[in-house]
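Researcher: Let's try something more involved. This one mixes different molecule types, so please make sure each is placed in the same coordinate frame as the others.
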Amino acid sequence: MDALDRLLQDFRYAIRGLAKTPGFTLVAVLTLALGIGANSSVFTLVNAALFRPVPAPHAEQLVWLAATNEEHATRGAPSFRRNFSYPEFRDYATQLTSLASVAAYMDIPLSLGSGGEPQRTKGLITSGTYFDVLGFRPATGRFFTADDDTPGAAPVTVISHALWQRRFGSASDLVGRAITINGRPFTVIGVAPEGFAGTELGTAVELWVPLASAAIAMPDGGRLLELRTEPWLRALGRLAPGATLSQADAQARTIGARLAATYPEILEDNSARVIPMAGGLAPDNRQEARPIFGLLMAVPALVLLIACANVANLMLARAASRRREIGIRVALGATRGRLVTQLLTEALVLTLLAGATGLLLSVWLNDLLAAVSELPSEVSAALTPDIRVVGFTATVALMTGVLFGLAPALGSTRANLVPALKGDSGGLGLQVRRSRLVSSFVVAQVALSLVLLVTAGLFLRTLGRALRVDPGIDTSHAVAVSFDLRIQGYDAARQGTFYTQLLERVRGMPGVTAASLASPMPLGSRLISSAAAAEGPGQDDYNVQISYAAVWPEYFTAVGTPLLRGRDFTSRDVAGAPPVVIVNETLARRMWPDQDPIGKRLRFGGEPFLEVVGVARDGKYHEMTERPRGFLYVPERQRADLSDITLLVRTAGDPRPLIPALGEAVHALDRSLPLFQAITLEEALRQRLDNERGPSFVLGVFGGLALLLAALGLYGVMAYAVAQRTREVGVRMALGAERPRVLRQFVGEGMRLAAIGIVIGLVIAAALTRVLAQFLYGITTTDALTFVLCAAVLGSVAALASFIPARRAANVDPMVALRYD
Amino acid sequence: MISLRNLDKSYPQGGGDVFVLRQITLDIKAGEFVTIMGPSGAGKSTLLAILGMLDGAWTGEYQLLEHAVHAIKPKERVALHKQYVGFVFQQYHLLDDLTVAENLDIPLSYRNIKKSERQAMVADTLDRFGMVAKKDLYPRQLSGGQQQLVAVARSVIHKPSLLLADEPTGNLHSTQGREIMELFKQLNAGGTTIVQVTHSETNAAYGHRIVQLKDGWIVK
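Model: All components are placed in one shared frame. Result:
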């Protein structure tokens, strides 16, 4: 009998057997589908980030040319946290002959003034070779040529298909027309193919402009093209025909070594590597995201293990009721291997069903995730399952099948099956062995569930702490409106005039009690850091890490941060006046412990000394869970020409109705200026908390799922034990056992298993949660309250799961039970 | 064909051993039809399981044709079982989820016979036992007698030289029982060695001789 025939036969019988027990099949498939679906869902995300190829022709030839830094190498791998300067990129582009073409790019904000309200859009500034490297054909028009990327060339742009549809109604005559970008005309030369929005996940590019237009596309852009000291570009390329990845990589390293030798003061320890281009994360982000993805993958894997233990128990129970059938098969000549194969086939049929259901579940989950997170369609499109996700799910399903199918298959075929043919339950020895296997699965389930619960608990406690943190600003009755005059082409003098006029208008609006400007905005996504030094001995060491913001007078009133000492900035603190600074408490303490900081001087970023005129209360500046940070404020008018200015307004009442009027006030001064954020400070704070809320939510869901599965597992085992021992209970009661005693006995058995699982789980959790330290805030990784609470929750659920079947046992009518047997 | 010498079977209980079979010495010639009788608990079914090599935990000597069963590994015993033995049980033990034809196919599939050959053998057997019309029915759709008929057909489909039957008519009424015993007689006449366990004197009369067991000992 050939193997395929046997396999088909086993499959046929397995399907028939499962169809005969629909309850068992449904519970097993759903349990596994939840576990497999959770894994597929997370893997879809990991796939999009790390593995999915760019949808370009011959994507296998595409590579990253990644700038590396050996100084920050970890475990032999260079750090990718470096970019290329434009001259350095040019060196690689001309010397790297193993690559057919190389392109440089960087994402930049662009202000789009045509086709409707001014809008800040995601732009990509690229070398003229960008689309050639990717090998795309335009939906209409053409892509950049070398001429477009030559200094002095007329500004041109390629727009995304989505933008073409949304903003220009798919106008067929758009190509050749000029649109306003950053206040200047750019000729549209082509439309990118539908669905393409850049190679990086999460950056839905809408406009591409060539590097030659850097001077008008980016503040200081012209200068950036000349400086070898300013690394700002990423690069990608396509392998030359016949060239291999390792050849290209070796060549890049050789060029890197040569450049480092030529420019030692700039490029010492720096080089480049050629690595395959896969996934939507650039090499640096990929390196950074790896630990997070590790954690993300580990958690659903634990959930799946619990689901496996659950289904293994169900299979064991089922195998016990099939002892007669297995006995007959042995009597008819089945070998143990053959029986194990057949039982494993049943397990595999179950997991394949569960895998398919899980895959559907993951698609649904990711759609939900995309909808909830309001992801752009180009990004959510990357979250659809491809062949890798299907392959991963199938592999997980097969491994799952072997994992939960093997122990029951081996266990149920090892026994002497002759008694089964005579209707015996298999003797005490077999029952003890089987019940030990079942018990160990339950203990493992409870232990794993506790590990997940504790992980979720620690994240929830971190969230709780973060929610209670004082942000150092008064978020009620305040609103923030952000815009960027620099990309609109304003010089420093025009910016100053604009800000002064805007503040005058806003301060005169009814309901406004204070108004100011800041860059960056408090609790925003941007943080500017530097190293500072106090005047005096060691003033050249710059050994104090600081972050800073440039603000206008009345800032502290507008955001509600009390000034503890000294004064606010005034209209006299302008360029040319003595440079001044306001420090926060932490910085004052670090620089001048036990001294009055007012009148002291400090400097940072190679600037002249600034005199401290005030001390502001400490707050949070970037993350709610950050440690106390040395922070200083400088007058914007002494440090002008910053990107992304935010207008901050405090109001007497609800600030939301004021938002449209503030937008009008800005547009009254410049109709084409896009506003890229207009929210209340309460909303801004909520957005910052999403960083903590996200993982807590995901882990909370997984923790809840684990708890549910563990409860179901314990319930299933206890319910089965009660059903198996109905006769025993009947005999006990006929002999005088009272109901409470029977109840105690069964609950006690369940709780004994739960207690062992909880103790083991606590030990594992204490050992494993250490890796979570970097994600937690305000609590230790062995936070006693979390551990005790999680153990108590799990214990209570276990008690309930044992109590329900135990009550059924206690309600057994002895006469019925004995007759039943 | 079969030669047992000083065969003991016991299991541990309460610190000691409880014996199920004691010093069994028995010879069965090829083509014989032997009946084992005795009260409940005498060890009849256990002896049958040992003869069929379903039970390997015993001491003593067991020679089956030229094979010393006591000296070979469990895997080889399974192979011997597959080659020589067919089993019939009191409770028929058909597989509920399989049709008549599929039940007949099972022992053949466990013997790695090609599908085309199996189909031919199943068709022959269905014809020989007059069950062609019932080949797609499930066991629950058959009467007790019909089920035992399928069970007997299944036990001999791979042409075993030794047929072991444990109370084969225990669950059947007398007419059906008689039909099954007649079938055994025919099989025996065709050369199959048969060992049956029964309480029925009538069934015992179909055999050539009777072995009496009591408390694990052969008493006659």
